[in-house]
Design a protein that fits this description.
It is a single chain. The protein has 216 residues and is mainly alpha-helical. The protein has eight helices and four strands; from the N terminus they run H-H-H-H-E-E-E-H-H-E-H-H. The chain has helices at residues 2-15, 19-24, 26-39, 46-69, 91-121, 128-157, 169-188, 196-215; strands at 76-78, 85-86, 89-90, 160-162. The strands form two sheets. The chain has a two-stranded antiparallel sheet with strand order 1-4. Strands 2-3 form a two-stranded antiparallel ribbon.
Length: 216
């Protein structure tokens, strides 16, 4: 379903006369992907729901500070494509923060589990401190990379606009720091972090934005 929706969106935006219709229905796609992500979560518990809520509220709060003061991310404003706003920020932005950070955390956890197994097979062992540092910092870099791919596409699609038309480095710095804080919470909350759909969704969305970045 995720592949179908994203491939259909690419075809609609790039090769049909209904580009505006597909862009206008972006909120439907984002809501559906977030719902599928939660649906595929193995054994969702209170800790998982706490992380979901924390990521949503942190995303909304930081974006409201950014939009209304310029002290986070830079000077920018949202368009109407992403649906209803609260204090200048679409509700879906909070959902998007959860999706991106959570998927990055799951990918890093999967990579760390694989590396830990290899270390154990060779007689070594990764320290808990090293695991935490890797998950938080590498995971935050992964979210920044995703944002770097997405930013110019989002501007062209009218999701948001930057003052002067330039995406500031400060935006990526804030993404890194806020994502790192959320991933630290992800690391210590006890819930199942083997959501395979999260890995697939991250790759699908990354390829989606990469394709649009090359062709728009």
């Amino acid at each position: 379903m995720a592949i179908l929706f994203h491939v259909s969106g690419l075809i609609g935006m790039l090769y049909t006369d209904h580009k505006d219709w597909f862009i206008a229905n972006t909120p439907l796609n984002l809501i559906l992907m977030a719902a599928l992500l939660v649906w595929n979560q193995p054994k969702p518990n209170k800790a998982f729901l706490l992380f979901l809520l924390a990521a949503f509220l942190t995303g909304m709060g930081s974006e409201m500070i950014g939009v209304n003061t310029g002290k986070l991310f830079g000077c920018y404003h949202y368009g109407q494509v992403l649906g209803p706003h609260f204090n200048g920020v679409p509700w879906l932005i909070g959902v998007n923060w959860f999706v991106i950070v959570y998927c990055s955390g799951v990918i890093m956890q999967k990579a760390i589990d694989w590396m830990s197994l290899k270390y154990e097979e060779s007689g070594g062992r990764l320290s808990k401190r090293m695991v935490t540092i890797s998950l938080v910092l590498d995971g935050a870099l992964l979210t920044v990379f995703f944002d770097w791919v997405m930013e110019p596409v989002a501007v062209k699609l009218g999701f948001w606009q930057w003052e002067g038309g330039l995406i500031p480095f400060f935006n990526y710095l804030c993404w890194f720091l806020i994502s790192a804080a959320l991933l630290l919470l992800f690391r210590y909350l006890r819930f199942d972090k083997t959501n395979h759909f999260a890995v697939h969704l991250f790759i699908i969305q990354l390829l989606f934005f990469l394709t649009l970045r090359w062709h728009l």
